[in-house]
User: Which sequence fits this backbone?
């Protein structure tokens, strides 16, 4: 199955850092999108963004997903591109309700530098992925989703620590500026072929338990 890079980026409702749909990035074909960062009842970023590929011709690049290797094996690169992201101070639509207007998010927590354009190099990879959050845990149950695609940024799209007005507390605990990978295209069929490569699996291997 062949798809353009534009359709791969934009046809996913969200690209996920975690399977709780709490920390996501998304892209629309009109050059807008969203960046969200939250944990339980804490919300730090729920902002619209603008995006554009540095090489306009990359938008129409055709990628043959079906023939780009076996998703049951190690991840592999299917495209690499440079993208400019500009975080906006505008709240995403679902955060504009009257009851959320008093919540301190976006520009209340971030410096002006966080809203300047930034360019990233992104690898689009095909494989059999857990979200980064799920991959950190020792257990994977029947409800933990697997994904066929991953966006791997060279730097996190979340603002770096020095662009937070007061990073103490939640931001320093979460360290979201280190989160670089986001998964898309949930694929239940990958569950049967999932292979864990985290610290738990390495420990089990060393102890001869797997």
Assistant:
């Amino acid at each position: 199955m062949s798809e353009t890079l534009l359709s791969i980026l934009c046809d996913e409702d969200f690209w996920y850092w975690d399977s709780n749909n709490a920390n996501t990035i998304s892209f629309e074909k009109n050059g807008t999108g969203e960046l969200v960062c939250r944990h339980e009842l804490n919300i730090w970023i729920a902002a619209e963004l603008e995006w554009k590929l540095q090489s306009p011709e990359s938008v129409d690049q055709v990628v043959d997903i079906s023939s780009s290797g076996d998703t049951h094996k190690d991840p592999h690169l299917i495209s690499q591109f440079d993208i400019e992201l500009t975080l906006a101070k505008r709240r995403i639509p679902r955060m504009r309700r009257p009851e959320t207007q008093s919540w301190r998010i976006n520009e209340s927590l971030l410096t002006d530098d966080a809203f300047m354009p930034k360019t990233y190099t992104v690898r689009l990879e095909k494989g059999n992925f857990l979200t980064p959050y799920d991959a950190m845990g020792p257990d994977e149950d029947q409800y933990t989703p697997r994904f066929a695609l991953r966006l791997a940024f060279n730097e996190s799209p979340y603002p770096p620590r020095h662009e937070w007005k007061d990073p103490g507390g939640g931001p320093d605990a979460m360290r979201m500026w280190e989160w670089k990978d986001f998964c898309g295209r949930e694929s239940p069929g990958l569950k049967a072929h999932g292979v864990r490569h985290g610290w738990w699996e390495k420990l089990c291997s060393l102890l001869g338990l797997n």
Strands lie at 2-4, 15-16, 24-27, 32-39, 42-53, 62-64, 76-91, 118-129, 147-153, 181-186.
